[in-house]
Amino acid sequence: MKLQTIGSGIGMAAILLAAGMALAPASHAQYGSQQQQQQPPPTLQPPPQQQKPGKAAPQQEKPAAPKIDPQEEAAYKAFTDTNPSDADKEIQLGEDFLQKYPTSKYDEAVNSRLTQAYFNKQQFDKMYASSDKALALNPDDVTVLVLVGWVIPHNYDPNDINSEHRLAQAEQYEEHAISVLGTMIKPTSMTDDQFSKAKNAALSQAHSGLGLVDFRKQDFANSINELRQSEQLAETPDPTDFYVMGIELNQLKKYSEAVDAFNKCAQIPGALADRCKQSAAQAKKLAATEPTPPKP
């Protein structure tokens, strides 16, 4: 079963992109005009040599500051100033930047944002290529990890010879994203409330991605657990998650719980609403056949 619901995640992915811009670890380049330069790791310095009396210690020259290319800075600013709704322009400027400045300090940030832009265009091969480049430069890029880990199980094709590898990759991405988010420090530019909402949005989508991975593996119990965690964290739950939960609960013969999941899905306007209403009615008939649980 291939869920054709990629478009429904654009809103959540946009939130995640904003979260990633704000939540990027301090040691990595961030988006926008206030991007921080990466700092080199500390090095161990040898102890100073003892100087003979009367001889002054040699003066060490300060390292030269890295040169700034005004054209590179202007090109990067033009890229970041592009409205994300204009994906075509964003992609053109981003690819032009990477071609002209293949070793720029901004390359990871550009590839990260291109991952989102290609997702918006549903050009998945190019999305994966950009995400691979971004993660090669910054394996902790939460924006990329969560988005790609969420897309893979939604765009799953069991006939693809790489499908199992892709599912394993998605699971690895989401688990790593959750780990990174768990230790992330609030940026000084964000309030506690802003940080909490952005972090919860990312965690919600990560658990949703894991739930869909488990669904594809037919591990329904673990999938339901992940999807429920996603629901609890989401400001606006994804109807696909409720629909999948309903299917899984039916498979586990928990029909009353399936009715509840389908009803939640049906209450969210969108392409799945009518299907969920029908599924809820069918699950309700099956629930009538459930044995009455024993009294405590």
How would you describe what is shown here?
This protein has about 300 residues and is mainly alpha-helical. It is built from 12 helices and no strands. It has a domain of about 140 residues: Tetratricopeptide repeat domain (Serine Threonine Protein Phosphatase 5, Tetratricopeptide repeat, Alpha Horseshoe). About 60% of the residues lie in helices and about 0% in strands. Helix 1 packs antiparallel against helix 4, helix 1 crosses helix 8 and helix 7 runs antiparallel to helix 8. The chain is elongated and about 85 Å long.
Name the features.
mainly alpha, 0% strand, disordered N terminus, Serine Threonine Protein Phosphatase 5, Tetratricopeptide repeat, 296 residues
How do the helices and strands line up, and which of them pair or pack?
Elements: H1 10-23, H2 70-80, H3 87-100, H4 107-120, H5 124-137, H6 142-154, H7 163-182, H8 192-216, H9 220-233, H10 239-251, H11 255-266, H12 273-287
Short description:
It contains 12 helices and no strands. It is an all-alpha fold.
- Uncertain runs: 1-51
Would you tell me the structural class of the helices and strands? mainly alpha
Q: Counting H and I runs of at least 4 residues, what is the number of helices? A: 12
CATH architecture of the domain at 1-19 and 71-186: Alpha Horseshoe
Instruction: Name the beta content range.
Output: under 5%
CATH superfamily of the domain at 1-19 and 71-186: Tetratricopeptide repeat domain
User: Which fold name fills CATH's third level, the topology of the domain at 1-19 and 71-186?
Assistant: Serine Threonine Protein Phosphatase 5, Tetratricopeptide repeat
The string of secondary-structure elements, in order, is: HHHHHHHHHHHH
Mean pLDDT: 82
According to DSSP, the number of beta strands is 0
Tell me, briefly, the overall form: elongated
